[in-house]
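Consider the tokenized backbone below.
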């Protein structure tokens, strides 16, 4: 196959200088507009991006701002593509995993954590990056189409990632990307091989906004649950049949099973239910 060489057009010095002046003028106007913009005293405009979090970490990891009064109605603004928080099914206490009956939400800013506490209950942790252990096992969320739910399967070896697919086609490396991965079609076969460390483990990621605080920005939830991965196929089909955004419920469902010796074991599985169009 012939190799294509794509080279950007090289502007002359006069064109480059004119273009640079235009960019500088636009940036100066934007800064002036922001500096003269006033916000209501009961609201707070913030940068809810991960970039802001990294800047604070590079400055010593300390947040010297005053703790937000939870009684104040917050208006938190973030870039439309920014991930401002992540949902978790548990936490670590003294380096030991602990499953929780309600969602825990980690955030990129204390303002977002306070807004989550207002919406879902619970209290913010001393370290706001650990977020809020909420009082809610279920939350209404808004998903923007089938691409909001993705499932990838990975198998790790001593030297790194040895298998990466979506259950049908390879996702990496580049030389095999898009070709059949050879994984079994049935979930039962995959689970049986995974127990023998011969099949990749699933990781399902859901990207959404909160129905009760759509303005906060985008959140993520990632889970290795095989049950959630199996259900994701049906979920994506349902989302594809809805024009525009869809209203869903993300929940922690209590499940009790009987194992050997008649012993009952309980756990909570994450579920995602499509409720209908979001309007």
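A designed sequence for it:
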């Amino acid at each position: 196959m012939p190799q294509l060489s794509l080279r950007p057009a090289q502007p002359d010095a006069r064109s480059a200088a004119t273009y640079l002046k235009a960019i500088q003028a636009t940036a100066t106007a934007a800064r002036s507009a922001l500096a003269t913009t006033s916000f209501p005293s009961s609201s707070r405009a913030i940068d809810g991006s991960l970039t802001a979090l990294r800047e604070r970490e590079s400055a010593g990891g300390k947040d010297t701002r005053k703790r937000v009064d939870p009684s104040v109605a917050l208006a938190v603004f973030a870039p439309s593509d920014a991930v401002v928080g992540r949902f978790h099914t548990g936490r670590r206490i003294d380096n030991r995993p602990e499953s929780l009956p309600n969602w825990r939400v980690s955030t990129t800013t204390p303002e977002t954590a306070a807004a989550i506490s207002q919406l879902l209950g619970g209290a913010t942790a001393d370290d706001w990056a650990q977020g809020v252990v909420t009082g809610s096992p279920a939350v209404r969320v808004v998903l923007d189409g089938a691409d909001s739910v993705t499932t990838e399967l990975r198998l790790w070896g001593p030297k790194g990632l040895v298998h990466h697919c979506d259950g049908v086609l390879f996702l990496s490396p580049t030389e095999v990307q898009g070709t059949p991965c050879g994984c079994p079609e049935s979930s039962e076969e995959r689970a049986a091989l995974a127990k023998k460390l011969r099949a990749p483990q699933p990781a399902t990621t859901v990207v959404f906004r909160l129905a009760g605080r759509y303005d906060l920005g985008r959140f993520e939830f990632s889970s290795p649950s095989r049950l959630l991965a199996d259900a994701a196929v049906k979920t994506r089909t349902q989302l594809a049949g809805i024009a525009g955004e869809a209203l869903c419920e993300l929940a922690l469902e209590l499940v009790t099973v009987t194992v050997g010796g008649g012993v009952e074991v309980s756990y909570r599985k994450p579920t995602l239910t499509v409720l209908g169009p979001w309007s």
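DSSP finds five helices and twelve strands in the chain.
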